Amino acid sequence: MLPEKHNFVPVSLKLAFVCDKTEENSHRGTSDQRQKSRPMHSVDSFDRFSRRVGETAAFLRERIPWIPDVCIMLGTGLGGIAHATDPVWKSAYGDIPGFPVSTAPEHAGVLMIGETCGARVALFQGRFHYYEGYTTRELTFPVRVMASLGVRTLIGCNAAGGLNPSFASGDLMVVTDHINFIPDNPLRGPNMEEWGSRFPDMSRAYSAVLREKICHAARKAGVELKEGVFAAVPGPSLETPAETRFLRSAGADAVAMSLVPEVIVAIHAGMECMGISVIANVNDPDDFRPILIEDVIEQAGRARNRLEKLLVNFLKEYF
Predict the structure, then answer these.
(1) Cα separation of 134 and 266, whole Å?
(2) Helix (H/G/I), strand (E/B), else coil: 72
(3) Labelling 254: which of 33, 47, 95, 198 has CA 20 to 30 A away?
């Protein structure tokens, strides 16, 4: 007896049929639907982004009494310097047209324009990260807006994991250079020559002049300040022992999930940059301890007063 016949179609052919039908249906979509499906780095999306930058800059220009001398980006648990700032205007990010919204822990999401010891500052209490789902172009939106307003200096602060075995929790490190492991670049896609060069030089991304000044301010304030290379990783998962060992061998002294995209955009815009990391923990890859974000926040909070003291003295003397 012959076996019963079945209408059997190989899985590979089924998949090919589904793919063909999907492609066919996609061609039937409206031009608007096809427009929406374009990648974020398309010309149209860049045009929208550049318009948003202009609109947000115009919004701020109408509301603030002067252009800040310096833009300060504060990271996890590092909002302390706000207490030393006399505000002339402030707003939640969500109330500023075009602004992204921060979802990171201990990031207040507030822009404060004010004076710190006579220095005119734009204080960002909280930043945006690649791990939140933003492209690096999007997460650097505030820096692009500040550059459009005419702000010429960026100071980026963050909480970081220590890689240098000579570091200890609570140390402050001024960044001398960086290594970028975030798999995106905020300058990818179309370039506006009015904003900066297509291929910006990064050989002196962190101003030697500003480093010398912050070291001088640290000595006067009695605050110990380390120097080192910063590595940026995408997150949100924290480093494994093998990754820690690799980052050390690559020449990094500290690691976190921020700062570098902002510096790339600032350099592209012709700004002068300085980075300061609060070392929240130091891990030995051969005797690794679990890393908890709660511990990182706690250690950053403990160093907040020293960071505030350092920045206040720096701003008081040089701005």
Answers:
(1) 18
(2) strand
(3) 198
Q: 270-292 burial string, b = 16+ CB within 10 Å, else e?
A: ebbbbbbbbbbbbbebeeeeebe
Among 40, 258, 51, smallest CA distance to 145 is for 51
256 Cβ neighbours under 8 A, 6+ residues apart: 75, 158, 159, 160, 161, 230, 232, 233, 277
- Distance, in Å, from the CA atom of 143 to the CA atom of 128, rounded to the nearest integer, reads 11
- Count of other CB atoms within 10 angstroms of residue 183: 9
Per-residue pLDDT of the chain in tens (319 residues, 90 and over written 9): 444 444 444 444 333 433 444 444 444 444 444 333 334 445 669 999 999 999 999 999 999 999 999 999 998 656 668 888 999 999 999 999 999 888 876 667 899 999 999 999 999 998 999 999 999 999 999 999 999 999 999 999 999 999 999 999 999 999 999 999 999 999 999 999 999 999 999 999 999 999 999 999 999 999 999 999 999 999 999 999 999 999 999 999 999 999 999 999 999 999 999 999 999 989 888 888 887 777 777 777 778 888 999 999 999 988 8
Is 152 within 8 Å of 222 (Cβ atoms)? no
Task: Say which amino acid occupies 185.
Answer: N
For the chain, which domains are there?
A: 41-318 (3.40.50.1580)
Question: Which residue, among 92, 191, 94, has the nearest Cα to 137 in the 3D structure?
Answer: 191
Q: Are 242 and 285 in contact (CB under 8 A)?
A: yes
Backbone dihedral angles phi then psi of residue 177, each to the nearest 5 degrees = -170, 175
Using alpha carbons, select from 294, 305, 310, 316 the residue that is nearest to residue 78: 305
